[in-house]
Amino acid sequence: MNPxxxxxxxxxLLITLGTGWLLTTLGVAxxxxxxxxxxxxxxxxxxxxxxxxxKATVVAGPFLLIASCLSVLRQTxxxxxxxxxxxxxxxxxxxxxxxxxxxxxxxxxxxxxxxxVSHDSxx
Length: 123
Description:
Elements: H1 3-6, H2 9-25, H3 34-51, H4 57-75, H5 81-99, H6 108-122
Helix pairs in contact: 2-3, 3-4, 4-5
């Protein structure tokens, strides 16, 4: 991981913690488990911030952000878990289809590992 990207983690975590705390004290949504919900959102944002855009992050990042939004809807009784899980399943399928697009690069950790395997098998 690039050192400049490592410095993103603490500020993003502090912003997330402060946002959840403020929303709770303002009474915007006091019944929401902000640690879980904002944790999902931060994980989605950090996916892009730390790893860039590739076939893995184009699935994981948006999935975590959408899961965070749906979590708020469920915790505020606007969505039942019986609807949340199928919605997340459908979204995962769509994101996997999007990741197949040729313009989205393969993650470097996959191409790097496969080239190492090819190199070893050639010897």
